[in-house]
Specification:
By secondary structure, the protein is of the alpha+beta class. It has a single domain, classed as Endonuclease/exonuclease/phosphatase (Deoxyribonuclease I, Chain A). It is built from seven helices and twelve strands. Strands 3-4-2-1-12-11 form a six-stranded mixed beta sheet. The protein has a six-stranded mixed beta sheet with strand order 5-6-7-8-10-9. Helix 4 links the parallel strand 7 and strand 8. It is globular and about 50 Å long.
């Protein structure tokens, strides 16, 4: 099974850059997208131009993503946040938000249940602009939610966490110590998730590898630009899956200021 997590920073812009062709070539089993930044109608029309996708379980036509069932959770804030999950296998169950633990209007969490596997697509809030408390509340709810899921399922939680966990995960740790993305309280929240019984798949398989999942748009096209970079996009998994982890990589691609994280199990 191949799973991709990708913050695309706006579905319309990324599709114009060629995102759909890349996703088709990648041929992942599950594609988890964050920061859709469009309402469902626009997002649906962008990836299924024929607009013949009527429900979760009807196959679209005239689309390069014809083999996928889409689950949109775009929220109600225009042009902001939102998640989208594309899966080749019909989900047995779909959960928007986090049941009793969390509800928001920003479409930040989408979970699909496939047999004994739960895949959580999460877009953790940025802690800037006075939203640190909101971010910490979300992280607390996410920790409780995935641990509840873990009681009955193998769990894979993917997404943009907006946290660089350790110094190896960013280029300027000293300068970022008081910046949201590397605050002690944020890093401790991520540690709490891991210590509650989850593995950071990339770090398990690449213990000393230095790779980043966010860099500025300028650094994509100007390699001489010395931009700050962070590994803030993760795929984490529950303990029973650890022996099944095969590869986990971060690919530097031009469709977004984020890079996709790809897991094979």
């Amino acid at each position: 099974m191949k799973i991709i997590s990708y913050n695309i920073n706006g579905i319309r812009a990324s599709v114009k850059l060629g995102l759909i062709n890349y996703l088709e070539e990648l041929d992942a089993d599950i594609i988890c997208i964050q920061e859709v930044r469009a309402n469902e109608q626009i997002a649906r029309q962008t990836i299924f131009p024929s607009d013949e996708q009527k429900s979760f379980f009807e196959e679209p036509t005239n689309s390069k993503l014809v083999n996928y069932f889409p689950i949109f959770n775009c929220g109600s804030v225009p042009g902001y946040a939102g998640t989208l999950t594309l899966t080749k296998q019909k989900p047995d169950k779909i959960i928007l938000d986090m049941e009793e633990f969390w509800t928001d209007s920003e479409g930040r969490t989408t979970t699909i249940i496939l047999g004994n596997l739960a895949v959580v697509n999460a877009y953790i809030p940025n802690g800037n602009s006075g939203r640190l408390d909101f971010k910490m509340q979300y992280l607390d709810a996410l920790t409780k939610f995935i641990n509840k899921l873990k009681e009955n399922y193998n769990v894979i939680c993917v997404g943009d966490f907006n946290i660089a966990h350790n110094e190896i995960d960013l280029t300027n740790p000293r300068e970022c110590k008081n910046k949201s993305v590397f605050l002690p309280i944020e890093r401790q929240a991520f540690t709490k998730i891991i210590e509650s019984g989850f593995d950071d798949c990339f770090r398990v398989l690449n213990p000393t590898t230095v790779k980043y999942s966010w860099r500025s748009y300028r650094s994509i096209y100007d390699k001489s630009y010395n931009a700050w970079k962070y590994r803030i996009d993760y795929i984490i998994s529950s303990p029973k899956l650890k022996s099944e982890l095969k590869t986990c990589d971060i690919l530097d691609l031009p469709y977004s200021d984020h890079c996709p994280v790809i897991l094979e199990i």
